[in-house]
UniProtKB/TrEMBL annotation:
Keywords linked to the UniProt accession: DNA-binding, Transcription, Transcription regulation
Keyword tRNA-binding: no
Name this polypeptide is given: DNA-binding transcriptional LysR family regulator
Keyword Transcription regulation tagged: yes
Family that this chain belongs to: Belongs to the LysR transcriptional regulatory family.
Any one cellular-component term (Gene Ontology): protein-DNA complex
Length: 298
């Protein structure tokens, strides 16, 4: 295999026809330059240059080899440029992302907007799925990354928290708690309450634990698994509910979202999950983007 440094040395000498000028052009001294030429000639088994104490000239073999050497160096530079461009376009390819519905109110749209700007060569394929379905899809290779609530299942994947958000109180328009001081959990005592069902194990456990810690037994009138459904039921006046703060971005004109009083237990997490052995080149850059955005959110 020909050494590119040897080729550069030969081309410089062939074009300058002077070892001193060629050495200055390459930013080196003459002895290593001469050594490069000698090694190249030894590798090819022919003399490329005729050298005297006063002149340098190309041999017939050198004249034939010069355009080939230039072509080899040009091909090498083009290959380097392609690699650099690929690095600049890091994340190019297709990435399949699973997500839960409650991530679409604010977090996922902000991620998609940033991804379009920062990873323009990445095609994102979105699949709305329950958290449990995402875990199965991840293990089967049907998605590259999932956005789920923390799972009590044994971790057969890598995960990282990308969002922590407080819970807020969702009330039907006109309810007394829509105005005045911030409501607390104790204000829910005796009120009709729409609960997360066990089909949403993380949210169900989060609220159950908070109620138990506060000594409250809510009067549950309905239990459903999705925040969107909960908000729909609240809009009918069926009851109150606790939902992630980001749901205030949902378009329900008959629902008022209010902060709930200081309850450190009521913080919901959203996790990104992926398989560490996944070699999709678009995964790492997208995951890095997730983490950068997560760090900037309050």
């Amino acid at each position: 295999m020909l050494d590119l440094n040897h080729l550069r040395s030969f081309v410089a000498v062939a074009e300058e026809l002077h070892f001193g000028r060629a050495a200055r052009r390459l930013g080196m001294t003459q002895p290593p330059l001469s050594r490069h030429i000698q090694l190249l000639e030894a590798r090819l088994g022919v003399r490329l240059l005729e050298r005297t104490s006063h002149s340098v000239a190309l041999t017939p073999a050198g004249q034939v080899f010069l355009p080939e050497a230039r072509a080899l160096l040009g091909a090498s530079e083009r290959a380097s440029q392609l690699v650099r461009q690929a690095a600049q376009r890091h994340g190019s390819g297709t990435l399949t992302i699973g997500f839960i519905g409650s991530s679409t109110y604010d977090f996922l749209p902000s991620i998609l907007s940033r991804a379009r700007a920062e990873l323009p060569n990445t095609e994102l394929v979105l699949k709305e799925m329950l958290g449990s379905a995402q875990i199965d899809a991840l293990q089967l290779g049907r998605i590259d990354l999932g956005l789920i609530r923390p799972s009590p299942s044994p971790l057969a994947y890598a995960s990282s928290c990308v969002l922590r958000e407080g819970m807020a109180l969702a009330l039907p328009q006109g309810h007394p708690l829509t105005s005045g001081r911030w409501p607390s959990l104790h204000d829910l005592e005796g009120e009709p309450f729409i609960m997360y069902s066990p089909d949403s194990p993380y949210m169900h456990a989060l609220l159950s634990t908070a109620f138990a810690a506060a000594g409250i037994r809510p009067r549950v009138v309905q239990a459903v698994s999705q925040a969107q459904t909960i908000l729909s039921l609240v809009s009918t006046g069926m009851g109150l509910a606790l939902v992630p703060e980001d749901t205030r971005k949902a378009c329900f004109g008959d629902v008022v979202i209010r902060p709930i009083g200081s309850t450190p237990e009521l913080v919901a997490e959203l996790h990104a999950i992926w398989q560490p052995e996944n070699r999709n080149p678009a995964l790492g850059p997208f995951r890095d983007l997730l983490h950068r955005i997560a760090k900037r959110r309050p």
